Amino acid sequence: MHFAFGVLWVRPVWEVCVRHFRVPRRFAYYAAFEFVLAFSMLYELVEWGLSIALAGPDADAYNGQQGDMWDAQKDMSLALLGAALAVLVLLITRKKLQEPAAL
User: Fold this and answer.
1) 5 to each of 52, 75, 78, 101, how far by Cα in Å?
2) Could you read off the pLDDT of 77-91 as tens digits, one per residue?
3) Measured distance CA(65)–CA(18) in Å, rounded
4) Which residue of 11, 38, 62, 77 has the fewest C-beta atoms within 10 A of its own C-beta?
5) Would you say 35 and 13 are in contact if contact means Cβ atoms under 8 Å apart?
6) What whole-number distance in Å separates Cα of residue 98 and Cα of residue 55?
7) Closest Cα to residue 83, out of 17, 15, 4?
8) CB 82: neighbour CB atoms within 10 A?
9) How many whole angstroms separate alpha carbon 33 and alpha carbon 7?
């Protein structure tokens, strides 16, 4: 799910940056990538906060951690990989669209 979050949010954020905020395309790639990383981190912090607030001493057994103390880092890494792949694909496809057709 976290990998899909990274893959699926890059393009819409890039489009919003370019079309609505008139951000230069090169910076929009970076902004979209950082958006995914930031919101992935925020989600993990909220998940951690809920596990502490609601579970108390049983926080390690909370579904969000799934018994793995490195679950949050793994989830954010998957989002990072998904976002990096999406930015790479977006860069390649945009570059191909800009190249003139060879005769």
Assistant:
1) 24, 10, 9, 34
2) 999 999 999 999 999
3) 37
4) 38
5) yes
6) 53
7) 4
8) 22
9) 10
Q: Which tens digits make up the pLDDT trace of 39-76?
A: 999 999 998 888 778 766 666 666 666 777 888 899 99
Report pTM: 0.84
Q: Do the beta carbons of residue 60 and residue 67 sit within 8 Å?
A: yes
103: part of which helix (H) or strand (E)?
none
Q: What are the distances in angstroms from CA 50 to CA 31, 43, 67? A: 28, 11, 15
Residues in the chain, total = 103
50's CB contacts (< 8 A; 6+ apart) are 62, 64
Eight-class DSSP state of 89: H
**Per-residue tokens: 38:** 């930031």
